[in-house]
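Tutorial handout. Part one gives the primary structure; part two gives the three-dimensional structure as tokens.
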Amino acid sequence: MKVTPPVPVSVDKMSIDVSEIEGLLSPPPMNLPPWQDASFLLGDGRTMFIRSMTEQDVPMLLEFMKKVMEVNKDFYDIVGVRVYGEILAVVRKRLKDPFTLLGLIDGEFVGFANGRIMTKDRAVSLHTMAFSRRGKVGWAMYYAKTYYAMEIVKVKEWWSTFESYNGWRMAGLAMAQPTKPWPEYQHELGGAKIYYVTEDSWNDSLKEWLPNYIGNQMDFNPTDEIRKANEVMRMPEKLEL
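Part two.
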């Protein structure tokens, strides 16, 4: 919008270095602790390796999410579109303090979970996806990112919302998460209701929610055998949704 200056000026045109603009558009990241590689023995006996996403993973994941966008059931299309944007936003530096976890079984990509740190006291859950219907993969991925926020970053509150019925059943209902008053409080994903976990509810019961449900704890010392089996990630040959 052009507005006539109210006083005479010595320079009426300015050249701006875009690197100066970038400093405004992508503020400095927080000094967040890294996710430590973990393994989890699923309910069906398979072992899932959970690690952070790397930039090298991004092209493969984006191509895979294009397929997910085309699945017109269980809200996979809208979730696929949003996850595609969130993955791209990580490398384009357009998502504040994100964390993205990938679940692999013998190198095959079977689970995705991401979120971001909003403030030092609050983290936001974005999406959780499972590409294997066995063993409660989605449950383990959601638990892993909640664990990261509450136990490793040590925020005081974890905000989620759920776009699918399966997601709500998995975490909103199973973890008995209360909701914030709506519409006074809205989740950034479409302004939906906010479901939340507090520091107290996590320490009192939810920290043991998945271990009690499936019977296993996350192991933050994966064996060399597990690491070797998951050195190279590959996409599933077909979508198991």
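Part three, for discussion. The chain has a mean pLDDT of 95. The chain has one domain: 33-229.
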